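Lecture notes, unit on protein representations.

Consider one protein chain, 471 amino acids long.
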Amino acid sequence: MDEYDVIVVGAGAVGQTAALRAVRTGLSVVLVESELVGGEDAFWAGRPLKVLGRPGVVLGDVRALPGQDGAAVDVDAAFERRDTVVGHWRDDQEVARIRNTLVVLRRGMVRLAGERTVVVSSDQTLVARHAVIVATGSEPTVPDIPGLVGTQFWTTRDATSSHHVPERLTVLGGGPAAVETACVYRALGAQVTLLARGPRLLTKTEPFVGTMLADAMTAAGVRVLTDVHTERVWRDASGVHVQVNHLGHGVRVDGDQLLVATGRHPATHDLGLETVGLTPGEPLATDSCGQATGVEGGWLFAAGDVTGRTGTTHHGRYHARIAGDVVAARFGDDLAARVAEAEADVRYRISSGATAQVLSTRPEVAWAGMTLAEARQARRQARVVDVDLSQLPSAAIRGPGYQGQARFVVDASRQTVIGVTFVGPGVGEIIHAATVAIVAEIPLDVLWHAPAVHPTLSEAWCHFLSEYACC
């Protein structure tokens, strides 16, 4: 039995952040991981997917220019570049980085085994003197569709680590992972059919987003079906087949590979939550300091996807900074001063709508904060300004036919921005300004004094402020 001040379960980006924040005040910290150190985003999610998608995005920009036809994507080169970026699925560099800190690294399957106790691979018991921070992330959700479980199919992990482009790829799902992967594999040369259950793609975003994206994907050769009810799945010698009901009509979709990208859920099934009075499979609910609710003693914390409050790496790291700082403050050296500092600085914005996300589709989709529907549901005095990005000077520079749209949601009672959505090539690089404006609650009359660089897509902010002042 080994004792440490803090045990962090999960060595992805979130767990590493929590461990490094907690170790700063003299606490002994052990980081435990059952798979690759670096986690989902580094090896199987955002990073490899965006690397695979980059050639298609660049070539799309080139083809938008007169006289530039753009070569086809070199698939082998794209896979080779992806393999290099993910270190050929070896975590040597990540391990070396951890071992250059004061954090101890342990490997093995992990389960909670009661108060402040963790069992690693059934033969090591670790006890935390003060806190356990859980950062086990999330795992794919497999829908209950007849025939699916017995059919060989891809999860997003398979799609991002494959070295083969199927001739025909069928994608189940209409959310971020589904549309990103569909766009990537279409650019790599696959014939792609996307089957979305909802009435449009990306149903949690502004309505125009799903419409614009579906139109662009269709123009690029993706077959997009919405309002789909999947009835059954089967595979035979000719491939994998999906029987769906589309708008009251039976439709059979044939493919060579099936990707199931219908969402994710917190990875708590085999975590031993029952030993501390919680329900396996459920999110680890936390308060604004990352402390788990429903567990006495204030020793259990959680951060990232496992809490059910985020699905992105950057917000998971934000959770981890808070949880790590609070643990360091409550249990580290110089206790009194650091408690006041850490807890006073916590501005927990997840529930108030400061989340941001960027999808590497073509066109790109980026959003931060609330949609208009969410603002009205929250009883905010919401006003909206829509900006046609194709009217910006930078749109003409990017090439003829540039199509883009922006929506700014304002709390009229407070005169602050509470939500921004962009659709268009290149918009992912300008969304952080929206995050800053929302989190800092910058008044509109202050934003007036921050003119955007000309000619850039950021000039959308100037158009928004001008339109809002006139309406």
